[in-house]
Write a structure and sequence with these properties.
Number of helices: 4
Number of strands: 0
CATH architecture: Up-down Bundle
Strand content: under 5%
CATH superfamily: 23S rRNA-intervening sequence
Order of helices and strands: HHHH
Largest sheet: none
Distance between the termini: 15 Å
Number of domains: 1
Structural class: mainly alpha
CATH class: Mainly Alpha
CATH topology: de novo design (two linked rop proteins)
Length: 120
Amino acid sequence: MENKKENIVQEKSFAFALQIIKLSKFLMNKKKEFVISKQVLRSDTAVGALIREAEHAQSKADFIHKMNIALKEANETDYWIELLYQSNEIDINAYHSIQPDIQELIKLLVSIVKTSKERQ
């Protein structure tokens, strides 16, 4: 069951990273917003990279550690998205198109970390 979750979280994190790359390009090219766009891009792409790293973790503890850091990065991404919305850098449509996806990723990561800790 855990392998299936890992695949789902990998797929969803990769798809979401593609969305954030497009958003970041839009923010830089159209809105001339360079600071937060780079922050959200950095934090979000770290999520998928950490999930991929966890695939080859050296131990269960290493797996949990990497997934926990991925969770922290996902939470940071959520913060930047909220900030972009509240500062009117993205409109309500853009916000509603990406907010559910980051929330889903956070929930998946919380579940994986919690389950992994219980099984350790």
